Amino acid sequence: MNNIIEIHDLHFAYKGNENGEEKEVLKGIDLNIREGEFLAVLGHNGSGKSTLAKHINAILLPTKGRVTVNGIDTADDSRLFELRQCAGMVFQNPDNQIVSSIVEEDVAFALENLGVPYEEMRKRVDDALKSVGMYEYRLHSPSQLSGGQKQRVAIAGVIAMSPKCIILDEPTAMLDPKGRREVMDTIRRMNREHGITIILITHYMDEAAACDRVIVMDEGRIVMDDIPPKVFSRVDEMKRIGLDVPQVTELVWQLRKSGCDISPEIISGEECVDAIMKLFKS
Amino acid sequence: MAILETQQLTYTYSIDTPFEKTAVDHVDLSINEGEIIGLMGHTGSGKSTLIQHFNGLLCPTSGKILLDGRDIWADKNKIRDVRFQVGLVFQYPEYQIFEETVFKDIAFGPKNMGLSDEEIKQRVLETAEDIGLSEELMERSPFELSGGQKRRVAIAGVMAMRPKVLILDEPTAGLDPAGRDQIFAQIKKYHERNKNTILIVSHSMEDIASFADRILVMNQGKLFCFDETVKVFARAEEIVKIGLDVPQITKVFLELKRRGLDFGKEVYTVDYAKELLLRHLKERGGL
């Protein structure tokens, strides 16, 4: 598979305060993301994960190093529109990213800016709303929707641009469990059925556990990069950098410390049930 | 002894309009002094409307709220006193910070209560310590602080009023796991010092499970259940059906039971799960 995103030696420092001190937030990131991958980014607040995400669609530009998305250098100003069409972003607070008073107009907003012909726009908006399961609400006002529904509308707005990848920065942080499930199901479908590359920043370990690959950030660097069972089984390290592991991973880790013969690489409820059944049968 | 009680509490929005909606529907409940209560319910279940009644921000359409046995609306002019006794911390309270310094922001509530400067100072510093804000931050502008610190300043502002009942609406929303654990630990510390009643709204079942004495679940404006944590999570399937969640570990033990491995106990924390499994393994000589 091709790399859709290539990040090489990325450094970024925020312009300093009145004393002129700079704060380096990213300290040399090397990361390749393959087309169609479903990647989770974990890290405590201030670890640099949102700053990293903002480099992928050129909201921020590197102080040093290089980011390319689908072959486009994010620093290339002349290809900015092309880049943002290719990499869409969804933020944490649904209320901050909805601009219109009618759902379908909100989804059409970016297409209108690009001057897409009416017929095509109609089709792309309808398709996008159907794919996130919000088609029946196309004539509603966003203010009448729940948080989870609003986030799905925001995702539809990105989908309408037919992007190759979507970056979601804690899209479920403000939602209740039902809203979280709706949004996660939608994201997963976009990845499986449409082959869209997903970069999901999250604090929820169960969401990260469902991804193909997890990277963990700490102090502006990538400190782990592996499949979820491998990352989460490093319980001590995860805790040391202020992160959590799924409850079942913590349980098997504790059981192992007490001498049980059980695999440390368990991240889902089903795996845990199977392992405990085995433990009691032997 | 009951500190907060509701009797047939009902609240209807936009009465006599097409948007009329009963958000809280004949709710009876009683919260004891010193208890820690977890409040759950999906968006639109009526939990926010309910908590806004507890300190008199909303006046019931019908029914009563009793604080210390007295109807809070018996004398409308005294409703301000109720707000000193029942402190409400909203969601994302850091957006409500406005003072020049951290000290002044925390002192705002106590000052409005008409306390002496001496008393205000003592309360501000004591609360700051409980919530983990160091003394050198007191003269800084709250707007220079990190998001997590700002949130703690805002929470401290309400705590410093020493309310008999402290209500927090999703105090850990948007925080990372370490920030979340820290806030819970600090609220617990404050509770140990003051022995007051605490009500926490949260979507995180794992946190509620290890924190609360009793759990109150709202669904469609009605009281779905209000019981000890163990008993609430025993109804896992119903809880999931109404759009909520139960801890992952609880689901694992329910599935084990379905597959014939029944430990006869409800499990909702990792520590308890470990203890239970090890005990049973030893009994069977498997360890």
Number of strands of chain B: 10
Class from helix and strand fractions of chain B: alpha/beta
Structural class of chain A, by secondary structure, is alpha/beta
Oligomer: heterodimer
Label the overall shape of chain B: globular
Q: Output the helix-strand order of chain A.
A: EEEHEEHEHHHEHEHEEHHHH
Major beta sheet, strand line-up of chain A: 6-7-8-3-9-10
**Overall geometric form of chain A:** globular
The count of strands of chain A amounts to 10
Name the chain pair with the biggest interface and residue counts per chain.
A-B, 41 and 38 residues
| Share of β-strand residues of chain B | 15-25%
Task: Explain what the structure shows.
The complex is a heterodimer of chains A (282) and B (287). By secondary structure, chain A is an alpha/beta fold. Chain A is built from 11 helices and 10 strands. In chain A, strands 6-7-8-3-9-10 form a 6-stranded mixed beta sheet, sandwiched between helices. In chain A, strand 4 and strand 5 (72-73) form a beta hairpin. In chain A, helix 3 (103-114) packs across helix 4 (118-131), helix 3 (103-114) runs parallel beside helix 5 (147-159) and helix 5 packs parallel to helix 6 (177-194). The model of chain A has no long low-confidence stretch (mean pLDDT 92). By secondary structure, chain B is α/β, with parallel strands linked by helices. In chain B, helix 3 packs parallel to helix 5 and helix 4 packs across helix 5. The mean pLDDT of chain B is 91. At the A-B interface, helix 6, helix 10 and helix 11 of A face helix 6, helix 10 and helix 11 of B.
SSE topology sketch:
The complex is a heterodimer of chains A (282) and B (287).
Chain A: E1 3-14, E2 23-34, E3 38-42, H1 49-56, E4 64-69, E5 72-73, H2 80-86, E6 87-90, H3 103-114, H4 118-131, H5 147-159, E7 165-169, H6 177-194, E8 197-201, H7 205-209, E9 213-218, E10 221-226, H8 228-232, H9 235-240, H10 247-257, H11 269-281
Parallel strand pairs in A: 3-8, 3-9, 6-7, 7-8
Antiparallel strand pairs in A: 1-2, 1-4, 4-5, 9-10
Helix pairs in contact in A: 3-4, 3-5, 4-5, 5-6
Chain B: E1 2-13, E2 21-32, E3 36-40, H1 47-54, E4 62-67, E5 70-71, H2 79-85, E6 86-89, H3 102-112, H4 117-131, H5 147-159, E7 165-169, H6 177-194, E8 197-201, H7 205-211, E9 214-219, E10 222-228, H8 229-233, H9 236-241, H10 248-258, H11 270-283
Parallel strand pairs in B: 3-8, 3-9, 6-7, 7-8
Antiparallel strand pairs in B: 1-2, 1-4, 4-5, 9-10
Helix pairs in contact in B: 3-4, 3-5, 4-5
